[in-house]
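Most newcomers find our protein records easier to grasp once they have seen one. There is nothing in a record beyond a sequence line and a structure line. Getting from the letters to the tokens is the skill we practise here. An example says more than a description, so a record of this kind follows:
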Amino acid sequence: MTDKNNNQHNTKKQPSFMKGFCDAMAMYFPDMGKGDIAVGVSGGADSMALCFAMSEYFKDSAAVTIHALSVDHGLRAQSLGEAQHVAAQLKPLPNVEHHILTWAHETKPNARIQEKARVARYDLMKNYMRAHNITMLFLGHHMDDQAETFLFRLAKGSGVDGLSCMSVVQKMENDFTLCRPMLGLNKENMIAFCEEQGVDFINDPSNDCDDYARVRLRKSRDILAEEGLSAKRLSVAAKRFSRARKALDLIANDAFSGCLSVNKSGRIVFRVSEVVSYPEEIVLRVILKAIAHLQDDTGYGTRLERVENLCADLMKPDNFRKRTLGGIIFECRNKDDQLILSLENLS
């Protein structure tokens, strides 16, 4: 295991970025010191800074192997050459193995390109990790990314959950964990770190293309910052929303268990009088939790607005009308004090 005292001593001699990175690693990943981990490396300043910083952080721990994963999306003629350039930059690092993963597609998507590329990128990295028994994927998301995510979701009308944005540690399916130790650091520090280390990073031209909403929001941030909406303040706001989300989820989990009468395959029954005794936000979370229990992995992608409308009606159970939402039948039997949720195809 890495000597934590030694790590703390070394950070005093390192640039501000490296100290901030080491502090975040010690806070959120204190027990790391052996095993294989994966790092997503696109070649930009953020992901290159992350990989070089992780190599430095674990330089005294021979038990840690860092798998640097670069995805060739095949959407630009230069993409393979850029991935190979990343490989050359990382080759001197003794504890890093670099691998290029290729997105195989016959034609370039003509719509939702960034979204589809993102899904393909995560699928390729997860498949690699599964094949090599790796569960932790480190990503180069930083404070500026968090600010953009906040603005993007705010523009889409997100609530508390959406505005909590990204977390440093995010549990995923099949025991995968996304790790973002640089969320408290800004990109300027990463660029400075790369320049100090002599790292030749890549500027993706899509980052300046106004076709994408995130790029347009990024360009608007200078104006917002003049009004006080800096990346740091937006990041703090996201952290506060995350704190509220955790509290609401804790109450909702207790409400779910406390109001439950029946929970079996394809059918959930609550005591409706107890459900509606909670504030509407908790009722909403209880219903969303029940929907997640009943739906299969693919789900129906039920729109939040429709669930909100259902909950608003449920707060007046005498007037609640039986309905189907997302493949689930919702029925109130007030005489029996029951709210019944059952899969449509089982009724």
About this structure: Residues 269 and 340 are 5 Å apart (CA to CA). The longest helix spans residues 231-259. The chain is about 50% helix and 15% strand. The first strand starts at residue 35 and ends at 40.
